[in-house]
Design brief:
Rossmann fold; globular; single chain; 2 domains; 19 helices; six-stranded mixed β-sheet
Amino acid sequence: MNNSVEMKDISKSFGSNLVLRGVNLSVPAGKVTALLGANGAGKSTLIKILSGLYPDHGGSVLVNGSVATLDSPGTAKSQGIQTVHQRVDEAVVPGLSVAENLLFEKIATREKGTSGSLAKLLPEARKVAAALSLDWSDKFLRKDVYELDIADQQLLTLARAVVDKPSLLVLDEPTSALSAAEVDNLMAVVRSLRDQGVGILYVSHRLSEVDALADHLVVLRDGVIRGEQDAPFAWNEALTQMLGDDAGDSASSAKEQRGSEDILTISGLKLFPRSAPFDLAIRSGEVTGVIGLLGAGKSETAEAMFGAGKSKPENMTLHNSEFKPTHPAKAIKRGVYLVPEDRAKLSMFADWSIQRTVTLPFLDQITRGFTLDNSREKKMGSDVIAELGVVAEGPAQPVDSLSGGNQQKVVVGRWLQGDPQVLVLDEPFRGVDIGARRTISAKARSLASQGRGVVVFTSEVDELLEVADRVIVMVDGEPRMDTYLSETNREEIVNTMSEVM
């Protein structure tokens, strides 16, 4: 059987920066091939070549044995290559309904039997959703796509990609915003497509998913293929190939820190109509890890601390003084900083440089009258690059040209340029490789050791175990467990999350 896709001697440069160096990669039909690598390894560039976004590259791409010219996303799709990118907000069409987005390709090409009328689209949209075990009602299918949360937008882009059963499906961090049940649905769809002969390139930092799903894995580091394996996988070898000889080191071995003083207190926070109000205290000198499934209220709690979102507590204090941030700017002024879940939409602007992204919250500190202190701005950007190990050409590089993990380092690092009293991190490790995760974890723990408050919201138990001193489990908008990590275990945490005791 011909390979669905072969990449032969692929190279790609951006200026003097050689990102891919003679990459040879095969994705066989009817197999799931996992692509692993730290952020900055070249995975995103490779995906964009397959997607037709970077036609100017060295080497050749073969589709089903024939040399293909992938000079645009349209030609890639015409060759049977469908890509689901990590940035789901860029994959949906605003102003259109869920059903119209789901069947967008057919509508755009006026495929026979496909009407542009929403009422006439619903029956076909229902069939597509049902085939993928998605319980989407007509009311849901009629919604404007921007009414959806990240998880539903991700599921929509996945569903749209498989409508025409592509010969190659490229999935870039497809489960980063999905609940456990939604991940199971996705994996069932992927296995079904594999059994139908579709070649699948699966890019994920969740190694447990790769272990459960992939037939073959390829490790990319610094633009070079460092190793390949067939299942079952030798993970110590794969991690060493990904990260180098320090792959076995882990921040989870750090000594537990316990705070003694409340730095931020919240009283009477009611998140949902069905949930009861609750109180919460964040202590200085420790990392508080808040975990829960999607819909548990994690992001809503994070936003409340920052003066954003709809849920407002009855009372908050910061350093024993009243704290009523009616707007995020007031929270920032008091030293309460938030790294939001959706960094692309809420923390960055397209084409902005690293240094401008870093200094945005602190413009009043680097301006004299109406004049920006460019040297100060450049220094702050350079400091973030140095302190967090951001892989970049320099502080003037556009932040949206960085890999996902390096973008997250910039977003986290900018708050360290201020005077954080409480740093709130909402899903800081989403779409981030192990190396970047450990860098961010180390910075969080270092900040806590300086007597500051740090809160990490996550839906991943492994992330919680790595970074947290204290564990809070949220279920249906309320804390159901509040203890220290040394006094609980993985099973108890998972059982509390699912309310199985």
